[in-house]
Amino acid sequence: MVGARDAAFMARALFLAERGAGRTSPNPIVGAVVVTPDGIVVGHGAHLQAGGPHAEVVALDEAGALARGATLYCTLEPCCHTGRTGPCVERIAAAGVGRVVAAMTDPNPTVRGRGFAFLRDRGIAVIEGVGAEEAARQNTAFACWVTRGRPHVTLKVAVSRDGFVGRAGERVRLTGPIADRFLHRQRAAMDAIAVGAGTVLTDDPALTVRLAYRARPFTRVIFDWSLRVPAAARVFSTLAAGPVIMVVSRGAARAQPDTVARFEDAGVVVLRADGRELAPVLRRLGARDLLSLLVEGGPRLHAAFLAESQVDRVQVVATPRVLGQGLAAAAGMDLGPGSALTRRVVLGDDELWETDVHRAD
Ligand code: AOF
Ligand code: ZN
């Protein structure tokens, strides 16, 4: 039975889970609390990094003997497999937990319901789905990666009031300082960022995280099919911040072996692709444990992602600047606050409109 207190304790577990936000890839973020039958919280836990203990184990360690007969609240189905760490369900059963309340099934195909079944087999009451919506939101990228083998893809674009994203060959600032800070925080939580060659040639971006704290390396991906980006581009001077991956067509790599060799000698990862299809490239990025990818532009790269239906989320930052003329956003990019809008955030003079793309599969 779902008690009135269950939602409140789950809210606490969901809050704890956020401590791992942006740090746990390729693992999900998970929070857990252990509560005695008289409603006293005797254990708290969060999963803070891959390879580290799971949230349930942290909470059970804190609870010690008080876990006997208690309820364990966890934001994800407890695991039943041995990965980098051992199965949580065995620890839960051994601790004598009487009841488990979980927000959602672990989408990982090696778990997916087996953790719950294990617990029920041992006579532990299991309640699923409390806080499900919030838990799913916390692990959207993980669920995408673990089921599809590719990163969750967010397309982000800033637009002028008259609908332009910039001017050809010119660096244009559209967003204000509040939006910039928000967007750098978002960058800090992503595993990787991608831009097209045109954006590197026009903006020469550093593609680093500023204005926000980031504890781990940041992967930058440059889609440069025909090897147009010069070695002097700023992004190549930021290898200390994390890997830089250049996606080039196999033909271009073959035609310009010296250029490729120079990049590789400098520490750049050159990923040779057959054709210009994005899906296989995304799977290769997924194999590098990249769970989330922020595609910043430009319009041609956005258009390619949209044409191939490789987009999970679209973010439009509407700004008050008027450009008069310039580059249009990718066709098919819904620039208005459409009906499917999932989030709308006011950022000073700018406004973020976010839409999640839902798929049948
Ligand atoms: C849990 N609690 O806190 C997390 C879980 O390599 P491992 O041992 O860390 O296992 C990683 C997998 O375990 C991951 O793919 C996901 O299915 C699950 N993560 N499960 O019970 C946790 N982080
Ligand atoms: Zn576990």
Number of strands: 16
Label the structural class: alpha/beta
State the major sheet.
9 strands, mixed
Hetero compounds? ligand AOF, zinc ion
Rg from alpha-carbon coordinates: 23 Å
Q: Average pLDDT, to the nearest integer?
A: 94
Number of discrete helical segments? 12
Low-confidence stretches: none
Strand content: 15-25%
- Element pattern in H and E: HEEHEHEHEHHEEHEHEEHHEHEHEEEE
Widest sheet: strand ordering:
11-10-9-8-12-6-13-16-15
Descriptive notes:
The structure is a single chain. The protein has twelve helices and 16 strands. Helix 3 packs parallel to helix 4. With 361 residues, it is α/β, with parallel strands linked by helices. The mean pLDDT is 94. Strand 3, helix 3 and strand 4 form a beta-alpha-beta unit. The protein is elongated, with a radius of gyration of 23 Å. The chain is 30% helix and 23% strand. It starts with a helix and ends in a 5-residue tail after the last strand. The site of ligand AOF has 18 residues, from helix 2. Zinc ion binds next to loops.
